[in-house]
Design a protein that fits this description.
By secondary structure, the protein is α/β, with parallel strands linked by helices. It has two domains: 24-174 and 343-412, 3-Layer(aba) Sandwich (Rossmann fold); 177-336, Rossmann fold (3-Layer(aba) Sandwich), CATH 3.40.50. Helix content is 36%, strand content 11%. It contains 13 helices and ten strands. The protein has a four-stranded parallel sheet, sandwiched between helices. The chain has a four-stranded parallel sheet with strand order 7-6-8-9, sandwiched between helices. Helix 6 (142-159) links the parallel strand 4 and strand 5 (166-169). Helix 10 packs parallel to helix 12. It starts with 23 loop residues before the first strand and ends in a 10-residue tail after the last strand. The relative contact order is 0.21.
């Protein structure tokens, strides 16, 4: 099937191997919540140091980094992501307080201040000994899950806090209702908006198409996403990362059609590719897809940033600037749907995810809108492998860094044995 063949199904995709109770952690008493994110520059002087952080270890000269800095430079050197995380942190604090959950929210970034190692040190100095991490990445792949777990593992090792500070992580939440509901609302509104644009130019019944957009990743990383040799599962198109997006997109379309009567053909597209051109990444690129759809007679495009939690740089540049410009140049009516951001349902959903793991205010039910979930609390052995070399890692069934104990006794049913991708 061509990547642009419309997905006609109204029901979520079904995996060949259903999720079991394996990997669910027993509730604990935590001292604080750690909001972990990618980070971004907050001024022109920050851009090159930030890009050095993102590309550390690859030996990329500053001259090359300057060549790829244009989307930051065009926005005053400021990525929206840090301010959005400040707002999300405040919203989480307010919702936790409203529920009577006495957990402070700490914030640490992978690539810019506040950095994760310093946040962990500050947490320990403040008397915290057990943290629950929630990240601004909803899907399963190396960059959106395992790399966070590695960053925590390395930070605990580098600060000397391994065995003294425990850090766990909530499950990947690609199909949690709190993440999905804002997209249901936005997609319905987007369809209405594009129909109104087409009506205004006298073509109210012209065909339109929904593009679910996410960050492209190397195909090797995509194939490793969700994989575990110890506990094999098979996924649509051979990747948990791809399958999770397809299943969540199908669930959104089903809900939108059932609740509003609005629908349209849809497909999954990718954006923000980087790296060496000879290395294969997931395709099609969203701009190529728009051009192909225009050639097929499509007159309206609804862009749903399904892979993204907030309107950070890879949304405001790659979608709002480049993809929408492609649509305009081709004479297409188009709109971009909002990301969850600080939507009330998203914030509530994140606190529900926290409460799944806490002894007090515990939520035993673990909702998931696709048959792929709910995803694991404890990542399977070897899941989302790091092809660049093994590193200390937390929150996995084959790792003990930062836990202070073997993870198995706390797990229920465990058998023995970039922004964007934020």
């Amino acid at each position: 099937m061509s990547p642009l063949d419309p997905q006609e199904t109204a029901a979520p995709a079904t995996p060949l191997n259903p999720v079991t109770e394996a990997g669910r952690m027993a509730p604990k008493d935590y001292d604080a919540v750690l909001l972990a994110s990618f980070g971004g520059p907050e001024g022109q002087e920050d851009v090159i140091p930030f890009l050095r952080n993102v590309t550390r270890g690859r030996g990329i000269p500053d001259e090359r980094l300057e060549e790829v800095s244009h989307h930051y430079r065009a926005n005053g050197g400021v990525s929206p992501i840090n301010q959005q995380n400040r707002e999300l942190k405040a919203a989480l604090e307010a919702e936790l307080a409203a529920r009577g959950i006495a957990l402070p929210v700490l914030w640490g970034n992978r690539n810019w201040a506040p950095y994760i190692p310093q946040t962990l040190q500050d947490a320990y100095d403040a008397g915290h000994r057990r943290l629950l991490m929630i990240t601004t990445s909803a899907y399963s792949c190396y960059s959106s899950c395992r790399q966070y777990r590695e960053d925590i593992g390395m930070a605990l090792t580098e600060t000397g806090l391994d065995g003294r500070l425990e850090v766990d992580k909530v499950r990947q939440y690609f199909d949690h209702p709190g993440f999905v509901e804002p997209f249901v609302e936005g997609t319905a509104a987007g369809l209405s908006d594009v129909r109104a644009q087409l009506h205004a130019v006298g073509t109210p019944d012209a065909p339109l198409h929904i593009l679910f957009a996410t960050h492209s990743i190397p195909t090797r990383d995509a194939e490793a996403a969700g994989r575990s040799e110890a506990e094999p599962r098979e996924f649509e198109e051979g990747s948990a990362y791809v399958a999770q997006h397809l299943a969540t997109g199908a669930a959104i379309i089903s809900r939108v059609e059932a609740e509003s009567g609005l629908t349209a053909p849809w497909s999954l597209v990718y954006q923000s590719r980087s790296g060496a051109p000879h290395v294969p990444w997931l395709e099609p690129d969203i701009n190529d897809a728009v051009e192909e759809l225009a050639g097929q007679g499509i007159k309206g495009i609804v862009i749903v940033p399904l892979g993204f939690v907030s309107d950070h740089m890879e949304v405001v540049w790659d979608l709002d600037t480049e993809a929408l410009e492609t649509c305009r140049n081709l004479g297409l009516a188009a709109t971009r749907v909002p990301t969850p951001g600080t939507h009330r349902k998203f914030v509530n959903g994140l606190v529900d995810l926290i409460s799944e793991r806490t002894r007090s205010n515990n939520i035993a039910d673990r909702p998931a809108v696709t048959a792929l979930g709910p995803w694991y609390d404890v990542c399977r052995p070897g899941c989302c492998a790091n092809f660049r070399g093994e590193k200390p890692t937390i929150a996995g069934a084959d790792t003990t860094v930062g836990t202070g104990h073997d993870p198995y006794p706390e797990a229920v049913g465990v058998p023995a044995g970039g922004e964007g991708v934020q």
